[in-house]
Amino acid sequence: MGLKGRNLLTKLDFRSSRSHRTCLYKCGDACSKPVPNTSKNTYFGDLMDREFTRRSALRTGGAAVVTVGGASFIAACSDGNGLDANSSDASATSSSAADVPTPQGLNFEMVAPNTEDAVTVPNGYSQKVVIRWGDKVVDGAGEWSVDNQNVEDAKRQYGFNNDFAALLPIEGQDNRFLLVSNHEYTTPQQMFRDYDVDNPTEEQVMIEMANHGLSVVEVEGNDKDGSLKPVMGKYNRRIHGHTPFELRGPIVGHELVKTTKDPEGKMVEGTFNNCSGGVTPWGTILSGEENVDQYFAGGEEVKDEKTRDRLKRYGIEDPESQRKWERFEDRWDVRKEPNEPNRFNYVVEINPWDPESTPVKHTALGRFKHEGSNIHVTGDGSVIAYSGDDSRFEYLYKFVSSRKMRSGNTDADRAENMKILDEGTLYVATFNGNSDDFSESGKLPEDGAYDGDGEWKKLVTVKADGSAESHIDGMSAEEVIIYTRLAGDEAGATKMDRPEDVEPHPTTGKVYAALTNNKYRGANREGKDDAPIAEWAPIQENKNGMVLELDDDHTGEKFTWNLLLVCGDPEAAETYFGGFDKSKVSPISCPDNLTFDSFGNLWVSTDGNALESNDGLFAVALEGDARGLTKQFLTVPAGAETCGPLVFEKRVLVNVQHPGEDDEATVENTSSHWPDGGDSLARPATVVAWKDDMGTIGA
Ligand code: FEO
Ligand code: CA
Ligand code: CA
């Protein structure tokens, strides 16, 4: 039986597979708190006055143009796995989907939605854990056990809650790679026996800080299967909550980044809440500092009103933080160190090829809840870094470098390329729909697509001599960099439904953005500034999210856009799969991280499935008649989120984050025993999947 139209319900308290515990420790309970963006930016009503450029649906490869008149269609019921039934009334389809050959990369048996305490992969595929929380990364680490944790070991072991993953081939060594993972956040109840939420010990707090950051670990394949095992190699490194970071950009030395421990305002201790990231063409790692606000206490009690308002716009209000780190380090107490938050929420860059190197914070990319950052390089070597601010009603950004990328592969080239993200212009996106008839939630406009155009608005330009120019009246360049959200408000940026991963396609250059969900879209709660539905955010109280496709004039200021997917149960009228036959696709909910396979298909991992299944990984065809075909490749255990997806010719990697996380879970009472089974404690881990015959994934 298929999943029956649950997303037609319009209750605000929709069920997500995400527990309240996950909201609390991952995002600082952002879902229960007021939306920090109270600006009046871009309401649908504003758009009615504008001139629209009509633009037909963005289709390639000669596919039939989709024309659907409204919300009246309901896809036919699905069979047992909800995937293969004939569609008798699939008026959302192009011609006959049965005639459409499955594109290369998507030739696997769909995994059915499920709630197993396991990683499931298609028949004919296998999977195995590569490395788990607590496993040794750096020589000298002790053997992990839940009852034998200490700070020094934690700084040498694989951190908690792996999110972003990169796998970089090591030159000259067959089947050997660098695995780089972010460790986004800690859930102390599931790390420490007898954890007391009101009275964490100093040692627990320091172990938590050590479990944040990143791991760099060499992994080795073999000639029998696709599994990978960790090796104590020369590149292995742990970056954690006390690793020094170099602050870069015009804010270095500025009053707003000086603290008691760093009176010169140029070095920051650690990186926190690193969510997703990206690999640069010069072989380094970008990582986004996301929900860092939750670690700070005392925002509401800061005396200076302007500072207090700015802290609030970044979500820093509570007198006490959830983890209570402020009891042990003054930097987490903004009453004592009001500038400390201004040193986080950046994109950081790590050179994984030099374990002694100092990682950097690229402040020219702006300060907001960076999900990650991903790069497109134009023909002349200009570098464009795309990034989303993952909160309800926040914005989409890009940075265009003024330096050109050096194509060489020497250490000197890499060092020069690591300066590219320090010089250039930061922009924020504004969106226009092209359908003036758009007014009903989930009703496809008459032109058959959610689409339109948009414009990038300049925020700040950092010049070659290190000086910077603000493009926002009333804000200095330094203020734009430190309070980028406020600059976005001033620029009239468009409020989005939680823009997460933003990734340029490696061959077409089109840019894809996961818009995870937004239960307050168009909710019209009394006294709140909820933005109404709009063509780019067409679902009221959006539970299942969308995937956006941009055709960007990369170094320029214009783009066109369309929604590739309106996610949810395909049986629900409001869902849209690029015009593909909805009876032939997997249900998908809450897209989060994106990647591409070697055939050019998009792969999407999910966070918080609202269709009562575990989260998973999905392949989505982008081109030709199969555009919009969406097939589930993998599911992760109950309570977990699928992160860091990577799809190579022979391997798929995912980071399984927060397995078994629920409101009651403790070390003593764990609802998941993944990955070790029996009565073991759940442990976040990196997983690799491969085809049993070692053939190409999905071919
Ligand atoms: Fe860490 Fe935006 O999820
Ligand atoms: Ca349209
Ligand atoms: Ca994420």
Structure, explained:
By secondary structure, the protein is mainly β. The chain has one domain. The protein has 8 helices and 30 strands. The chain has helices spanning 20-27, 44-47, 151-154, 202-210, 305-313, 411-417, 477-482, 484-491; strands spanning 125-132, 162-169, 176-183, 213-220, 229-231, 237-239, 244-248, 267-269, 274-279, 285-289, 347-350, 360-362, 374-377, 382-388, 396-404, 424-433, 451-462, 468-470, 499-504, 511-515, 546-552, 558-566, 576-577, 591-596, 602-606, 616-620, 630-635, 641-647, 652-657, 685-691. The strands form 5 sheets. Strands 13, 14, 15, 16, 17, 18, 19, 20, 21, 22 and 23 form an 11-stranded antiparallel β-sheet that branches. Strands 8-7-12-11-10-9 form a 6-stranded mixed β-sheet, with no helix packed on it. The protein is globular and about 65 Å long. The two termini are 28 Å apart. MU-OXO-diiron binds at residues 184, 275, 290, 371, 390, 500.
